[in-house]
Amino acid sequence: MDNGSRPFDRARYPILKRRVGVHGGRPLIYLDSAATALVSQPVIDAQVRFLQTSCANIHRGAHQLAEEATDAFERTREQLATFFGVVEPERVVLTHGATESLNLAARGWAEGSLCEGDLIVIAADNHHSNIVPWQMLAERKGLSVAWIPLTEEGLLDEDAWARLLVRAPKLVALCQQSNVLGFRQPSLARIAAEAREAGAVVVMDGAQSAGHEPVDFEELGVDFYAMSAHKMGGLTGVGALLCSSRVMEDLRPVYGGGGMAARVDASGWRAAPGPEAFEAGTPPIAAAVAWSAAIDQLKAAGLEAVAAHTRALAERARAGLSALPGVSVLGHRVPRPFESLVSFTVGEVHPHDVGQALDAAGVMVRAGHHCARPVHQACGARASVRASFAGYSTEEEVEALVSAVAQLSAAVRA
Ligand code: PMP
Q1: Who's near 125: CB < 8 A, 6+ residues apart?
Q2: Ligand 1 pocket, 388 CB below 6 A?
Q3: CA 266 to ligand 1 center in whole angstroms
Q4: Taking phi first (over 0 means left), then psi (-120 to 50 degrees means alpha), and beta for anything else, what does residue 171 get?
Q5: Whose alpha carbon is nearest atom 12 of ligand 1?
Q6: Contact 84/215 with Cβ under 8 angstroms?
Q7: Are 144 and 119 spatial neighbours (Cβ–Cβ below 8 Å)?
Q8: Residue 90 and residue 120 in contact, taking contact as beta carbons nearer than 8 Å
């Protein structure tokens, strides 16, 4: 904890010193960490250090720099395995982000393992990246798709799930933490366990929960778990797909090219053993190396402390915003804590206009459907404004948000 009792020391984030707005008159109030978290100096330094000392391609060269680069890249894989409790580091596939991870699960595993007529079940609180790959797959292979709908409050509909379970789904796509609804789904663990018991492969999108709360992959009991480094304090362009042993066996390469083949000749090719088979071409090496520093930072702060901090801020924002006339917080009737974000609407004002008004007041939030249209439909909103928090966010920033929204809502009602 820094002396402001935040898990991440704000002094380590050079961008937080920036002034924004007309003539740089305002401090930066960044409440968009769910889209991309800010990057600290140690993470920037890790990337720079790698580029200054060991910049080379991995796996291919026999010289010192190539070896150093390979070691640094592989250290990140090992660190991810330890951090997320994956027993064998070979079951951590490095990708370009959660989106690619989920598409790899669809193309690399489900494409070859599911058959025409098989049922895929998708939870309606998913981001489009854990929806569209399954819809595309269903189109290609003639699969059926069914949804676990959300209740008006935003809860996964457990009765609907019970009806789907008896139809023996082959794959169930779940989201560990919605990027729109602030609370954790109370039935998530049960749904995942029941799905697996019934023989389904469970694909979990961890983009908003990896690095936000302790996650033990083997205990979680899912088959695929997807994440992006840039939502955990790392850089854009790198992510991972964690795989269970049973799906890893049947995972097939999606991209062909350098690094992924053990043998290539006129008669054909054979995949390399291990995760390299799914990492064709040159990966984002420097970003992967920097990810390691972001994980060190999370470990030093303690995930419990990070989660408690963002929860306190999200709950404060939820309470402050819900009390404002005309402001409606998505999912706010659910009596569960909001973990790290709050989505809301302000009367009939279009969320983009709210976003612009808040930006003019120096508060940076996200506005739109956040690539999660089904969850908005379920909550009866076309779009929303989202404020999201990280280990460096402050109570003062939450107050600035609430007071800017209060002024806007008063102006709209005047
Ligand atoms: N899932 C969720 C829940 C997300 O919030 C996001 C990012 N908005 C993604 C998946 C996709 O992540 P990326 O764009 O880094 O691939």
Answers
A1: 150, 154, 156, 175, 178, 180, 181, 185, 372, 374, 375, 378
A2: no
A3: 40
A4: beta
A5: 98
A6: yes
A7: yes
A8: no
Q: Please tell me the residue having the least CA distance from ligand 1 atom 5.
A: 179
Which of the listed residues 228, 235, 241 should we mutate to test ligand 1's pocket, taking the one with most ligand atoms within 8 A of CB?
Answer: 228
User: Distance between CA 365 and CA 35 in Å, rounded?
Assistant: 9
C-alpha 117 – ligand 1 centre gap (Å) = 29
Q: Which two tokens stand for residue 27?
A: 């401090």
Which of 55, 115, 371, 379 is catalytic? The answer is 371
Is 99 touching ligand 1 by the criterion CB < 6 Å?
yes
Per-residue pLDDT of the chain (414 residues; tens, 9 = 90+): 444 689 999 999 999 999 998 888 899 999 999 999 999 999 999 999 999 999 999 987 789 999 999 999 999 999 999 999 999 999 999 999 999 999 999 999 999 999 999 999 999 999 999 999 999 999 999 999 999 999 989 999 999 999 999 999 999 999 999 999 999 999 999 999 999 999 999 999 999 999 999 999 999 999 999 999 999 999 999 999 999 999 999 999 999 999 999 999 999 999 999 999 999 999 999 999 999 999 999 999 999 999 999 999 999 999 999 999 999 999 999 999 999 999 999 999 999 999 999 999 999 999 999 999 999 999 889 999 999 999 999 999 999 999 999 999 999 887
Residue 97, ligand 1, Cβ within 6 A: yes
Q: Whose CA is nearest to atom 7 of ligand 1?
A: 35
Residues recorded for the chain: 414
Instruction: Output the CA–CA distances (angstroms, integers) from residue 245 to 28, 89, 169, 226, 306, in the order listed.
Output: 45, 11, 20, 15, 30
Amino acid at 99: T
| 371 in catalytic set | yes
**pTM of the prediction?**
0.97
